[in-house]
């Protein structure tokens, strides 16, 4: 199956970090979503962690609103915040509620300093990394830090929508594999391509700044891969 | 006509800054919107400035998403960003388009360093003030900086909806006087009241922090009043 | 008299904004410092405003510490903060104290929302502009926003040290014309040149990013020129 | 041996998190510095990690300059930045140089996305936590996040200066046990006490805000304890 077409920059990033990228989008956790072998408790552990992550992911997208330079960037980032806060997080809340975990339970996990287990360090490291890039960096840094999550899930959802051999986690797969989400990834990719050219010029991939952005992308990719580990590990 | 009921903190702020508040919400510019005596060109000048202001106002609300502590605060701030970017700004774009001013024309005014006339200094001072509070301050600072605009327009819209003697600027008046906007002001006020108690406790008005927030509110109120002046002044 | 050699980027910026630059560094206020014709009260008004500006200028340099990428950038920015807080501001405090204005008096002016006269709008517009660039922008944005002040004063001090026909304001002139300050400007220029190459590559002046930085530099230059006006205007 | 007197807030925080605090300041790694049993390689591993931490710790103190409200807070934070960048980090550079590790080697570790081992997650989690508090929070959040490091090292240095049974790590112990560092801790504590009263009033410990600050303090304390673990673990 061919790689998804989410634009030039994504394609360059994906090629450049190919080992880390494969380790992320073809992680055993992902494959077990496709063949249905993932234990339900592990899925719930992952959802709980992911909920906390999404709260901060929405904050990072809000920082992208702040750092937008034109109305197209601003509207796209505002739509991402809205989609996360009012739709994607709702899915988590519903799935957790069905398993007897309330939204208050989810949020109570948030800043608790106890139980700093491996899982928690990964979650902290990833969310604080993204947020701090949001504050310290510019719009490009933010896009490079957010792309592995948004586009990686797009690539996984697109692949599993065709390759999944089990329907156990179909709802999750559909969330990211459906055409609206795929279209969002393509638009997002076009926006990143334009943002790079508008700031660094057509030869952006020859600038040192591009190397930095590749490092940000790779760091977020590796943190995503580590994040999968936490689903099957201890519950924070 | 009685003051609007937008909650306890708003009422305290409004009383404490009563002179500045009246100078703002009963400014001659406001009255001339109500009796239709405002020249159309002055209205367009104001709309153009206000469009630039709203771009940064949306950024400030996005910072409120970042600095929210619970999902209620976060959802409210995300809705404000969405409302500004996708609805309130659209009104400006339409009104300006009807007068032959494109959105690109509007944005071109943005960062141009020429023509640093009085108008521009006021606009810069206000927008940078709000944004910097958004970065430097916490959620409460942001609410205090944003309330004069959001709630002041609510109070003006509510009053003019009943008192206006001309229908020339009815569309503008309706934007802020309609029940949905009024309901938004009441919800926003309830959220501010809760945020104060959740952070500073029930006696928040006895803390030094409250005095600071009153100063922020007053500063934004005075900047709003100055902003009305720019409508009838030079176009930046 | 030749232009000072504070590096390549400064030279490009200076040429590109030549009218605005001349209006700033050869402003009548500057000339009146050189020939001693500036009334002492106007000088004190300026010093009071400038003190408030320096408080926020120090904050902006602190943001440059935060956004530094290597130790050379970090040490330079930390030294700038230290120099402002512990030396340059001390000069203002002493000069004002000699005129019966205490440091508490100076700070009391700070956030007072009253008296939003022209002077205050300019001060607010400038300081909030620099701070917001510090938060929103990266190290390069900060350097472009801070260079007109730091290097402009260097150029003025260097010229007046040779051309001044009066000794009335010699202490002020020496502060910026002395060799240590000049050396600081040259080091700062070298650091900016390196920062541009390290991020945007050797052809940085061909990137759109460079155009943005030129706009930031020009905006700060024009705000500096406006700031001179406030010395002879009302005291905020 | 009695607890150090670094002010009221520190004393309250220390009591409230007593288990976590003991686990940090009496960690086996600390005891092995005191009796000299710590292997030199483990000490070097710790120093390398700590160097990277200090780079970001200096950034966090720079954010405290930005968020200061008065000159006393600003001067203190500027002095902390200067002390870290120009003195404390120099000690690390010298100690590492003596072991054949150059400053460039140290910095090269910095943003490398490879080797995301446990050590690296802890370091990332801690440094990004502090930085993000610096951006998102106010001066009080920053003080609560920074106190465990600055004052915890003060308490450890003060105790080991008297109790150490070996001179192997005397230089390290002296760095934090010497009278100048102790005086810095006491001044810092007085500043925190004043900052709390100046913002939240004399009954600050009754406000919900105080509970949040206690959580920030405890989180940083637990991250410090986890950080000791990394000294004896893999080198990132």
Can you describe this structure?
Chain A has 236 residues and is mostly helical. In chain A, 78% of the residues lie in helices and 0% in strands. The first copy, chain A, has helices at 8-16, 18-25, 28-34, 40-66, 71-98, 103-108, 118-136, 139-163, 170-177, 179-200, 208-232. The longest helix of chain A has 28 residues, at 71-98. Chain A is globular. Chains in contact: A-B, A-C, A-D, B-C, B-D, C-D. At the A-C interface, α10 and α11 of A face α10 and α11 of C.
The level of helicity of chain A is over 70%
Structural class of chain A: mainly alpha
What is the count of β-strands of chain A? 0
Strand content of chain A: under 5%
Largest interface (C-beta under 8 Å): B-C, 25 and 25 residues
Q: Element order, helices and strands of chain A?
A: HHHHHHHHHHH
Oligomer category: homotetramer
Count of helical stretches of chain A: 11
Morphology of chain A? globular
- Report the uncertain regions of chain A: none
How would you state the average pLDDT of chain A, rounded?
A: 90
Q: Tell me the Rg of chain A in angstroms.
A: 17 Å
How far is the N terminus from the C terminus of chain A? 36 Å
Major beta sheet summary of chain A: none
Features:
11 helices, 78% helix, 236 residues, mainly alpha, homotetramer
Summarize the helices and strands and which ones pair or pack.
Four copies of one chain form a homotetramer.
Chain A (H helix, E strand, L loop, with lengths): L7 H9 L1 H8 L2 H7 L5 H27 L4 H28 L4 H6 L9 H19 L2 H25 L6 H8 L1 H22 L7 H25 L4
In short:
Four copies of one chain form a homotetramer. With 236 residues, chain A is mostly helical. Helices cover 78% and strands 0% of the residues of chain A.
